[in-house]
Amino acid sequence: MLKVNQMDRPKILITAPIHEAGLTLLRNVAEIRTASPSQALIKENLMREVKDVDALIVVRSREPVDEEVIEEGRNLKIISRHGAGYENVDVEAATKRGIFVTYAPVNAKTVADLTMGMIVCLLRRIHEGDRLVKSGDWYRGQRLSPPLMGVDVYGKTLGIIGLGRIGAEVAKRARGFDMKILYYDVVKKREYEEELGVEYRELDALLRESDIVSIHVPLSKRTENLISERELKLMKKTAYLINTSRGRVVNQDDLYRALSENWIAGAALDVFREEPLPPDAPIAKLKNVLFTPHIGGATKDCMRRMSLTVARDVIKALRGEVPEYLVNPEVLEIIKQRGRPLS
Ligand code: NAD
User: Fold this and answer.
1) Which atom of ligand 1 lies at the shortest distance from residue 187's CA?
2) Mutate to test the pocket of ligand 1, among 58, 102, 107, 185 (most ligand atoms within 8 A of CB)
3) What is the pTM of this model?
4) Do residues 11 and 31 touch, judged by C-beta distance below 8 A?
5) Any atom of ligand 1 within 6 Å of the Cβ of 268
6) What is the pLDDT of residues 237-264, one digit of tens each?
7) What's the 81 CA to ligand 1 centre distance in angstroms?
8) Which of 52, 162, 221, 304 has the fewest CB atoms within 10 Å around its CB?
9) Count of domains forming the chain
């Protein structure tokens, strides 16, 4: 009897290890398969592994869950993205097949913390200072005083591109630094204008006026290469660009030229066109850039929160309930038309 029950348990494929808290919830209701760290990135692996599973948890933002992969998942009821961006999931293809697509937009404060950290680090040259001390160069050249000249963070004008969950959290934090805050978004956010004291600008005006430009839009056809040569040339020569959204929102070749030819003063980048960033990429050599390896949401607290969010929604979908963080509500109609019961 037990054997039959075990065989009846739904199957969940998780493309990389996730926090134990979410895993524990999932293990109570399903058979779990976790791909090895490098395995599921490749489409062929995904196509093979997805064949008999009921749920797919997509841990990395670059795993290609396209129409072909979705077609192979004949039993799929839910595709859940363990993160806030879901541009790597073909939502339309999933919807046509009556599959829920969910995400875990519970990392805004965590990403905003990193963004502020990058701004302070870049302008005050903290990372360079750390290297100077550890290398012994400060000791050897101690007559140079002060050794690293930065610029003030407080009082500067911060331009936020995309005032959504993360952008708004960045604005909140920036207020504490007495910054003037501008924003550009496809949607005017009147409630934030009052609550956070932010001012709307068209993109070009924001680029011209800001001392620091921070990007928080999702990657889409409209935002790919949103910041290219023309936009970089609008920025002040003394300005800094911060990108913790997606690498392809910025044209990386143009940014390399902007930084190496001093069109702008510097940049802090958590995301790249190709990840991991190859060490021989020209931009990787630049001194006026602060790099982090896509760690926007990488805290233990955030990983726990994301794993629980994803797990709860997957369990709901497997029980025939509507998940909370649904990306494609239009799927409900399709599920209804197919006569699948939903509660
Ligand atoms: P969100 O949906 O809450 O906010 C995005 C905002 O961008 C919205 O206000 C939207 O109106 C605006 N927008 C969309 N298209 C635009 C355009 N063409 N021009 C101007 N504004 C536009 O999303 P969020 O939770 O704030 O996350 C933003 C992005 O950050 C995610 O999509 C993801 O790609 C990225 N992210 C990165 C990390 C990381 O580890 N570095 C972690 C989480 C999220």
Assistant:
1) 11
2) 185
3) 0.95
4) yes
5) no
6) 999 999 999 999 999 999 999 999 999 9
7) 15
8) 221
9) 2
- Is the same domain home to 324 and 306? yes
Whole-angstrom Cα distance, residue 160 to residue 30? 42
**Is 294 an annotated catalytic residue?**
yes
Locate 168 and state its tokens.
């708004």
Tell me the CA distances in angstroms from 246 to 28, 152, 225, 251, one per residue in order. Answer: 35, 27, 10, 11
Whether residues 178 and 271 share a domain: the answer is yes
Give the model confidence (pLDDT) of 191-239 as tens digits. 999 999 999 999 999 999 999 999 999 999 999 999 999 999 999 999 9
Q: Which of 246, 248, 305, 312 is catalytic?
A: 246
Do 324 and 313 reside in the same domain of the chain?
yes
Closest among 39, 13, 7 to 26, alpha carbons compared: 13
Is the distance from CB of 18 to CB of 37 less than 8 angstroms?
Answer: no
Catalytic status, residue 246? yes
Q: Residue 339 has what pLDDT?
A: 87
Please check whether residues 186 and 267 belong to one and the same domain: yes
